[in-house]
Amino acid sequence: MTFNVYFYAEQAYLSHVKKVLTTDPVNYDHEIESGALCAISSAAAIEAIANALICEYIKLEKFDDLRIESKFEEIVKFGSGKIVWGVSPWQDVAELIRVRNWLVHFKNSNIGLLNSEGRWIKDEYNKIPKITPSIHLRREKTARYYQCVREASKILVLSCKKQLDEYNFLENEEYQPTLVG
Predict the structure, then answer these.
(1) I need a surface site. Which of 9, 35, 56, 65 has the fewest CB within 10 A?
(2) Rounded-to-integer distance, Cα 155 and Cα 88, Å
(3) What is the pLDDT along the chain (181 residues), one digit of tens a residue?
């Protein structure tokens, strides 16, 4: 016997984030560590959905060369819409992409200098970092990124289709990363 095996990366990523959000962090370091992995997973989930939609509906050549934001814009444009990056959920998605880029293109572990009030100090040796882990990688942001990815993904799907169908996991949060049959 032979079976087709399907792997839905976007569901694996979102399932991971949901599980993290349902468990309490052990300590601050664990929260930041989980937040970093969840930011990368959330960004990967929405990009996986965008790539699938582009392949199935838009048939855009060389879409891998596009920035992730451009992929979203192309999908929404396909549905006769336009993304306004300054409003929810796109504002949070843009922030998530900045956090993801900072994490996956990380260059130096010395990210800056903080004063005793928790403010970054810029001097001849230190720049203000693009991301503040104690803000962008905390549980509240992880939950916000998870929600905005689900909301923005629904917009992307509905720009190509009239209903969520096989993307109903964006509504019900019931994830099935693999299917054999």
Answers:
(1) 65
(2) 12
(3) 999 999 999 999 999 999 999 999 889 999 999 999 999 999 999 999 999 999 999 887 888 889 999 999 999 999 999 999 999 999 999 999 999 999 999 777 877 887 888 888 888 888 888 888 999 999 999 999 999 999 999 999 999 988 888 999 999 999 999 999 8
Structure tokens at 104: 């996956």
Amino acid type, 123: D
Query: Using an 8 Å Cβ cutoff, are 57 and 32 in contact?
Result: no
For residues 10 and 48, the answer to whether their CB atoms sit within 8 Å is yes
